[in-house]
Protein: 6,7-dimethyl-8-ribityllumazine synthase
Amino acid sequence: MSDIKGPVPDAQVDGSSLRVAIVHARWNKTIIDALVTGALKKLKEAGVKENNIVVESVPGSFELPLACSRMIAGSHIQVASNQADLLGGLNFGSSSGIASPRVPSRTGTPAPAAPSSNQPFDAVIAIGVLIKGATMHFEYICDAVSHSLMKIQVDTGVPVIFGVLTALNDDQALERAGLGRGDNKGHNHGEEWGLAAVEMGSHVRRWG
Ligand code: DLZ
Structure:
């Protein structure tokens, strides 16, 4: 990352009392996995307890707004079937490329997740990777998803972190997940999304 770009981390972030959801799409899975891992790493480093992190997946980025909205509305409900896999190391099965959606499959026997608490979510991180193709699909989905996620957070008062990469090609997306193919591996933006969730969740607790 260059010296002039990127956020200044807030040294005060304490996530020990926060409950956070990650909702991720399954398109472009290699990149998604790295981003989710980056977000989880920072959530845990900021003190968010494992049983206060819920991970859900949806087919593609277009499904993220509805998933976020329902998770915020129903955040007292017990959690995702794939949570143990993700918290245990993104155990989704083998991957042969970055440009296809995948249905999660269990490849090992993950340790059982601790029971989730039932407090409302303090923040939701929506993670998707949109890569421009030959048609207008990309533009429509980017526009709809970004506006919808903003509306959900403003309407509900629950921070929705915009973890959606809108890349013009594969390399742009890979570099923003720290997976760059050249000398420049880039930087994993999932880490900032994890920190942003903790900071915004803490702020909203204080602001009321
Ligand atoms: C259809 C589609 C396409 C072409 N590209 C992507 C993509 O790059 N990233 C992504 O997350 N999802 C993509 N999708 C799937 C849509 O988001 C959505 O899942 C389907 O249109 C079904 O509503």
